[in-house]
Amino acid sequence: MSEPLNVARQRIHEARSEGEGPRVRALLHEWRPQDRLKTQIHDQAVTLIEQVRGQGSPNLLEAFLAEYGLSTDEGVAMMCLAEALLRVPDSPTIDALIEDKIVPGRWGRHLNRSSSSLVNASTWALMLTGRLLSPTQASSMVDTLRSAVKRIGEPAVRAIIAEAMKELGRQFVLGRHIDEALERSAPAHRKGYTFSYDMLGEAARCEADARRYHLSYSEAISALAPGCASTPVRDNPGISVKLSALHPRFEHGQRQRVLDELLGRVAALAQLARSAGMGFNIDAEESERLDLTLDIIEALICDSSLADWDGFGVVVQAYQLGAGAVIDWLHCLAQRHRRRIMVRLVKGAYWDTEIKRAQVLGLAGYPVFTRKASTDLSYISCAKKLLDGRAYFYPQFATHNAHTVSAVMALSGGPGDSFEFQRLHGMGESLFSHVGEEGGYRCRIYAPVGAHKDLLAYLVRRLLENGANSSFVNQILDHEIDAGDVARDPLDEVRSVAKNPAHPAIRLPPELFAPQRVNSRGWDLEEGVCVSTLEKQMKPFVQGQWDLAGAQPDTLSGPLRQVQNPAVLDDLVGLVREAAPEDVPGALAKAQEGARTWGKRSPGERANVLCRAADLYERHAPELIALAAREAGKTLADGVAEVREAVDFLRYYAGQINGLGKAQPRGTFVCISPWNFPLAIFTGQVSAALAGGNAVIAKPAEQSALMAVRASALLHEAGVPDNALQCLPGDGAGVGGALVQSSQVSGVCFTGSTQTARNIQCALATAGNPDAALIAETGGLNAMLVDSTALPEQAVRDIVVSAFQSAGQRCSALRILYLQNEVRDRVLELLFGAMDELHLGNPLDLATDVGPLIDFAALENIRAYCAHQQTKGRVLKQLSAPAGGHFMAPTVIEVGGIEDLEHEVFGPVLHVATYPADELQAVVRAINQRGYGLTLGVHTRVDARVQQVIDQAHVGNIYVNRNQIGAVVGSQPFGGEGLSGTGPKAGGPHYLPRFVERGRVLCSMKQGRGAQVALEQINDWGSTQGQSPGPLDPRLAKRMLESAGACLSAQAADEIEKVAHDSLELPGPTGESNRWTLYPRGNVLCLGPHAKSLRSQACQALALGNRVLAIGTDTTLLEPLRTDWPLEVITAIVEPDTLEGLSAINAIMLWLSGEALRPWHRALAQCDGPIIPLINEPGASQCLVIERHVCADTTASGGNTALLVQSA
Q1: Which residues are the active-site residues?
Q2: Helices vs. strands in the chain: H and E counts, helices first
Q3: Do residues 695 and 669 touch, judged by C-beta distance below 8 A?
Q4: Per residue in 1042-1069, pLDDT tens?
Q5: Could you give the 3-state DSSP secondary structure of residue 1135?
Q6: Exposed/middle/buried for 410, CB within 10 Å: 0-12, 13-18, 19+?
Q7: What residues does 784 pair with on adjacent strands?
Q8: By C-alpha distance, which of 236, 215, 218, 337 is closest to 279?
Q9: CB-based contacts of 208, cutoff 8 Å, min separation 6
Q10: 682 close to 705: Cβ distance less than 8 angstroms
């Protein structure tokens, strides 16, 4: 590439990187029209608007958009229905989808308001359908109609709605195939319009998709060729091609493969188009694909076999900050190769996606303008560039905005053959009948071609672009808005906000969690310059060794451990000195001193230290990402996410310290972290304990000790004293066991397997500190449910990520996929094709999707498991794994259901089962019966089914229409229930308080005389519980505090008030809902030991919605509560060993301390099933509830309606 092209390409990156403010100010400098020109444009626009309004009835599509804007619930419902209905194969699900979207709507308010009789008729049908399906309607007429519908079944309603959706599709799609499209285009041809055809289809998920799309494009070009009778290409039809449809891995990480494989496919299509004499446009897509798209464009322009052809075209999106720079680069390219390029200028169709992606990735800013007026101004500036460069460009102005059209008309010098307008099929007909048919300007219609079921993504983008009240298409038909206001000049609005042009309602990604904290910095691994910079910064760490033994305390006496790279077995990553069990007493003594000094630091001091540590983590991110890859097998994407999560933990807990009030630290915490998140979970545990004022002894997994030692060094550098944080790598049973069994340990924070958590519980019960807190986050048998309304391509995208990213080595990873019977074959076909596209290899290679397992033992176990399943004929798909590392091939195994899984397989192994549509409840019941409750995924467009799953599933984190991994601190508090953990959720509001004391009790267990309660009595009571309790009801707490508040200590009453609140919508990226909800824990056993403590315990548990069984020798104080509350009372003695076979009890309250508590812990450690919390602190009301979180992708049906309406 020559210097001018290099410079021009660099300016594209600079324009995208410098931010919205400088770009807007540059636009204001570039576009400074004289007042006369400005007035001319405005007056011409007003004239066009008035002509359109005076023409009479709009077409059906414009009338629909005018009536059902996306600011109405009905408009959103129609969009969701249109997106899903035509692909659903089974009648029961179609009926459920119609009921879900139509019943809640207020269709009556739209009746007879539209100028279109068909829209009014559709409104009547929708209104009637809503009434027929709604069980709350009571009129006799509706009852009669509903009875009639039941007699004939639901087919009539189903047919009416399906036909309405097809009619809507026909307005957008010119033909179901190219021959039908050519036939339907004839009337417009006779009026002087030409066409550009878009073969419907989004990004290919697999090679079969890409080949099918390639064939579709080839056949379309051949069908169009006979109609290319004119010598100038501009007079002939054209075709638009999406590069992502022609290659399943059209992304920067696969750049070389894409160039090797895709270039030939596109060149072959271009040669066909050249031979036919037709236009051939490379369509614009999301910004992360821009660099790769420009690479393909340049290669095609340089192709000598395509020389002397003016039909090659590209698309430029005006909403991109770098749009003008892209045009400048194209100009340099065309000059160099003496070519004339067709350039279609559009506003852009992925704006909401761009905003969300930048927020999710934590980028510095957005690649697009955040105000519509800025995009409109950018369009005019780009139009001027194109018109001024007509020697090298054939501009194609795609817009439905009268002001934009008028600006182009004024700048162009009048009609001619040197440029054209473009409009979408079905839209802008009235406007362009005046501009084209009467005004003499050339106009081309952009026409999609394909089956209605393939319309989905295209249709929703068009609805989103033009259905918001702020859109020109919507406003031009609204006679209540003055034509002068509709034709307003974007220059005026942009000038008024020039000092701060960013939209005030759209926070920059770093400010996503403001004012509480700064969002962690991200790296865009789809952006070439960013990747090159990161790789350069990582270079010193991709081959050298971390010899950390010398930096460790000289008190460690264990062996020197060599750390090997699990992907490259002869790569020595570094050396670390392990601790020995004999080192534990000295570490504990040092920690006791650290707890005294660190605990006296003010909250502000502790917060500042943690924030400094976060800054250091970001500064050393390239090193930490490289270390994660070489020590733990993390891909670069996983490494970036690991660093960001660790940074988020530090800042989140720092921001919560003040909320602890006067609570005192517990003392010394032992934090036992796993190898699969060697930095993030290590830092999350340690930072929470430090935030609470505790000293920490960290015992990392043996496989990832280097990361823990390096992170500890950064924490020390930030200001954490050596005695407040010690890192003791070493054997889990030896070093970890010695720590857990020490009476000097005040709490244990553990992440790992369920069985190891039970072992820690037993160790604490038999030899450790009876008052120590245990926080355990363990594994799960995580499921995903996919019904027939789900978009298979979206579902497969999320299945692949959930099951195989990180080589399946996440506790949240998908283990069993449930597919509705009707979609099994299609989803598996797509899934197997997507799996074939996965690249297994060295995680330091950006192209790698799946790295190695952590060690040979893990590999051997999973290989043996899969081999056993192979002998049973259950393996449906297995990839091949590269040699030379601990690589396990992603595998899919068919099972009957979750009951067939004997244990969690911690690797890239996905089990698949099917279910009938009417057995969704049975599937969720089976998932609950396994006892795990970590993550659950749901893919459906039926909101009622989502709610059904939420109401029924005993799962900590539910993910709707997205993948089920990668919880974000503060947005998606993470942790399970049942066999998946004790709670509280990491990165959530309840986590930090668990690290401080909540009231001490100093009494002993002195029971009076009486009969001894039998275990059967307790278990029988627990098993009689009916339906699982719903979300926490704050009214219960209020009623309890009003009636029995005097029975509670001030601390207990205050804690109940803090805990008892409605669901919280937590902050997060746009287009995503993050709802955190508290539920009663369930069955609570209150044991006093005295009458007043028994009453206080019962009041706390009941106030938070639990059922209570209270047992004591003196229960008289409980009598007033028995009539109005779910309280059972047994007057008896309870011995600790009675509880050894306890079941169906979710928590025990017993206010003892010290050795008096030990026999009770021992008894509970013998119980099967989940760890039962023993609550011995009067202020620990948070332990009486469980947290559940639902994260939903609200854009899954196609786009972010709320953001688009907000951004006007």
Answers
A1: 777, 811
A2: 43, 33
A3: yes
A4: 988 888 888 889 899 989 988 899 999 9
A5: coil
A6: middle
A7: 817, 937
A8: 236
A9: 829, 833
A10: no
